[in-house]
Structures are given as C-alpha cells and as structure tokens.
Amino acid sequence: MKHLLRSTILAAAVLLPGAAMAAPPEAAPVQALNAALIASMKAGSAGQSFQARAAALAPVVQSSYNLPEVEKNSVGFLWSTIPPAQQQQVAAAFEKFTVASYVSEFSKYSGEKIVLLPAEKTLGADKIVETEIVPADGSAPTRLDYVVADGPAGWQITDVLLNGTISQVAVHSSDFSSLVTSGNATQLIAALDKKTATLSSGS
User: Fold this and answer.
1) pLDDT (tens digit, 9 = 90+) per residue, 165-179?
2) Share above pLDDT 70 across residues of the chain, in percent, rounded to a whole number
3) 2-201 — its CATH code?
4) Ranges of each domain in the chain
C-alpha cells in the first residue's frame, strides 16, 4: 500500500505541454520538474535507455527539490544521530532512489496534463502550489499539491501532497523508521540502493 501511494504520487506529476504561462515564483520548481518528466517520458517512448533518462533528470530533481531537507525530514528525529559520513551516504542513495523512481514511473508518455490552480495556500513561511492532474482519457482529475520553501537556492519542493493531504515525506518516514537506529543508517542505505537497482533493471 505504501509503495502504491508513492507510485501514485510520482505518477500524477505531469506538466501540460506548452503551459509555461506566467506563474508565481514558488511554482517555478514544480513547472521545471514536470517539464523534465514530460521529456523523460517522451524519451522513454523513443527508446532511450533508463540510464540516459536518469542522467538527464537528475540535475532537475537536484534543483527542484531541497533534497537535504526532504532527507532529514524523511528519516526523522534520528537524523541528527547519524554520523556525517553516513548522512552523505544516505543523501546519495536517496537522490538516486528518487530519480530512479521518477524514471521508472514516467517510462512512457500518455498525454497527461497539469493545471496550476489559481488558489494559493500558506504553511507558515512556506507556500503550497496546488495543481490538478487531468488524464488524457478524460477520467476524473487528481489533485496534487507541492509544499515549497524559499531558501538560499530559491524556491524548492520540500514535500508532495496527494489529494492535498497525503504527505510523501510522511510515507517515506513510515517506510524508513524501521531501517534507522540511533547512530546507524546502514540498513536504510542498503534498502535504498536495492530499490534503486530494482527500478533501474526494470524488475
């Protein structure tokens, strides 16, 4: 069920081609990510390899997401107990897993569209960029919101909310909780590496 939720969150994030309309600055990382996902799907449909698509998508994930913040919040309160060297290993493994998840889920282009909703919410100092995903087959749209924060690198994504409520960070935290003990994240690193390898192989 947890994998299904994550897959649904990832599979819903698609940008309407040609919809680079004027939008508030906080929407920029969302638009950039989804434009890259469209390109990745089209590349997959054209037969480009998984590795090539991952290499193309990785820089956009790095710039669109505040990955250090997502990693820290996904691990939870035990993050501060993990030695710095292991934190770096977790960060590298988590980034590869995130990119591989996107490439795996966005393997083919099916004409999905996204609409940025005009309403805007605040969450403390953060903003919530609201979107509505419109499937190409005319079925009911799916709500997908992004929590974005303004930091040294500008506005970046710190969480994704399916149907405006289901937190991707919370799903990760639930998955990771049994894999981290105080001062030790070796099980989490191994699990992330294994998931990345499975996704990359198409299994």
Assistant:
1) 899 999 999 999 999
2) 89
3) 3.10.450.710
4) 2-201
